[in-house]
Amino acid sequence: MELIFREKVIIYNLLSERYHELKSKPESRDESTFQELEGMYIKFGDHLEKEYGKDWWK
Question: Of 9, 14, 37, 48, which sits with the fewest C-beta atoms within 10 Å of its C-beta?
Answer without folding.
Answer: 14
